[in-house]
Amino acid sequence: MNLNYTPEQIAFRQEVRQWLEEHVPEAPLESFDTKAGFEQHRQWEKTLAEGNWGMVTWPQEFGGRGCNLVEWLIFEEEYYRASAPLRVNQNGIFLLGPTLMEYGTEAQKERFITRMAAGEEMWAQGWSEPGAGSDMAAIRSKAIRDGDEYVINGQKVWSTRAVYADWVFCIFRTDPDSERHRGLSFMLVPLDAPGVTVRPIPQLDGLPGFAEIFFDDVRVPVENRLGEEGQGWQIAMATAGFERGLMLRSPARFQETAKRLVELYRSHRNDILDLSIEDKVVQSYMDAESYALATYQTASRLIKGGNIGAEASLNKIFWSELDQHMHETAMSILASRAELLPQAPAAGEVGRWLDGFLFAQSGPIYAGTNEIQRNIIAERLLGMPRS
Amino acid sequence: MDFTFTDDQQLFCESVRDFLQAEVTPESVREGWDSASGRNETLWQQLVEMGLTGMLVPESHGGMGMSELDFVLLAQECGRVALPEPLVETALVAVPLLANLAEKDPRCASLLEKIAAGETRVAIGHAANNLVSDAHIADWLLLPKGDQVHLLASDQVGLTAQQSIDPSRRLFSVEWHGDDETRLASGAEGVSLLAASLNRGALGAAAQLLGLAEAMVEMTVRYTEERHQFGRPVGANQALKHLMANCAVKSEFAKAPLYRAAYTLSESPSHADFAVSHAKVAAGEAALLAAKNCIQAHGAMGYTWECNLHIFMKRAWALDKFWGHAGFHKNRLHQWLMNPNAKIGADKTFGVQG
Lengths: 387, 354
Known about the structure:
The structure holds 2 protein chains of 2 kinds.
Chain A: H1 7-23, H2 35-50, H3 69-81, H4 90-103, H5 106-117, E1 123-126, E2 142-146, E3 149-160, E4 167-173, E5 184-190, E6 196-201, E7 210-221, E8 225-226, H6 232-244, H7 251-268, H8 277-303, H9 312-334, H10 351-360, H11 370-381
Parallel strand pairs in A: 1-4
Antiparallel strand pairs in A: 2-3, 3-7, 4-5, 5-8, 6-7
Helix pairs in contact in A: 1-3, 3-7, 4-5, 4-6, 7-8, 7-9, 8-9, 9-10, 9-11
Chain B: H1 7-23, H2 26-33, H3 41-49, H4 68-80, H5 87-101, H6 106-117, E1 122-124, E2 132-133, E3 140-145, E4 148-153, E5 158-163, E6 170-175, E7 183-185, H7 187-226, E8 228-229, E9 232-233, H8 238-267, H9 273-298, H10 309-321, H11 326-337
Parallel strand pairs in B: 1-3
Antiparallel strand pairs in B: 2-6, 3-4, 4-7, 5-6, 8-9
């Protein structure tokens, strides 16, 4: 064990910090759930790509830097420290990218990863259906082979970023007689294809952060299938593993929130009446640290050839509940101002906390609800009997 | 940057685990409850032979010259079996205190050699704990008085037994009078030695708490497979799965803080307060939640003397309050967080803290 950064890692941190200082936009971008904000964020993705900072862990041939996971953590720490914009293409870079590298053909990698890394194509995720949420194997939307094409019919829902994105990755039933996990295939579909209708769904903040997608005789070439026909479930589970595992929610995000919470607490200390706040602030700081330390531990293990399986479910529960806890604490400190929208004249600095509080409500739901994660932990990590 | 234990550290831990799992069973722990001393001299000598009492004794004094980081996994294994013997307090707390004084005080040097050889037992008191554990079997006692550290022989102290809810724990109030002869350190030196002892004691308790938490969950998962109601194992019910999963989450995220605290104590002990407090609070929470959820999952059986759960549960309740309770450690963290110069934030995880 050696918990010191190497001189190379220290130099890498400096390089990241300097680049971010020179390039992070001074004014915060608009929400990427508005059309203008989405385009601003797309531009930011291009800026990142031009500096080769889009996905530092990816190989150089795909626009990355071949960084290991410790270097990735350093990059993320600097990224959140600099308050750089959120990644509008997170579905693509964190989920589909690693999936393509594992299951994609050379042609698919060349076609899709390159443009994803260049910030040119933004991705949405299309898994849930009206009748298939936590029970994802209940998927009914179909993609039926017709010569060199698949013909897609059905509906996806809760597709994050689908309103302004360019592509969606989905799983469809390619064997119409199949049931449950069998007969599903993983498909890449352009959202401007004839027969695709995207209907925005406003989220808690009123902006269309996700959408329903209707497929009406949509034709896509066979080359848009990832992996073998019938392999969709296996690939989707691998993608879900990336989502719950290390990449999606790096600890830096929560450490910066914890830091802001401590600062908020310090500045309001004399007018806080709620006796539990002191304890909650300390707990928030500790838990954000715990998550960071545990991530470094996992990263070290993975660098030495270990792997991450059902343990990812422990992470997902921990960071999502931590995020809720921190934002609840901030709202308690802000007290009667907590409900104010940023444009309210009396809002002051409260706006960001409210946004964060709203978003924190979704953490225990997306990427597999925490109830499902607890089942996975109990059955696969602890060995309790399946229901 | 490498947050993993070495192969040697892991292999040694596995051999100690195998030994403890074989020798320290619920049956053997219960036998100790009925004996006068509550301690097993044969077992102690076996621990000595494995080099465990002398792990942190410098090589020049007959020990292995190892660090808190080398010992922390072993302390976790001691918790996993609810070891009644005071191995952790001896090897991880008393020994480093004596080692810090060995240069200037030949009594300490001599004690180190005898502890490593299994010829002497030393108990240690601290202001954080009102009572001294295992004072009854100690030949010597390290005792604090303000900023002073004293060393007294067993015939120089008066002991009053204070019964604990955990029948394995043997606690004593100690009556004693120190003088120039018994004083080992005072002033700034004494303060710093006692502060370091508190951190090592808290680290040892945290490691045992984590081991206890994991042991309780493991035995409870087994029980929920065996116990059937409504025609199926009770563990098939989601409500029980979620009780156990919550314990697993708490334990998982107490590990890295524990190992970071052990590392910091080994590498820069004067900056270890916050790492240690974090570890102690996190491990205490994991153990208390495991105790609460495991007794619930056992139903009425968990409330009996016969069920082995209480061996672990009671130790967890006790150790959570020993070497600084959660309130003490959270206050240390709080005080630090209130300092506008405290280094916190995403790029500060491994910076010097405090």
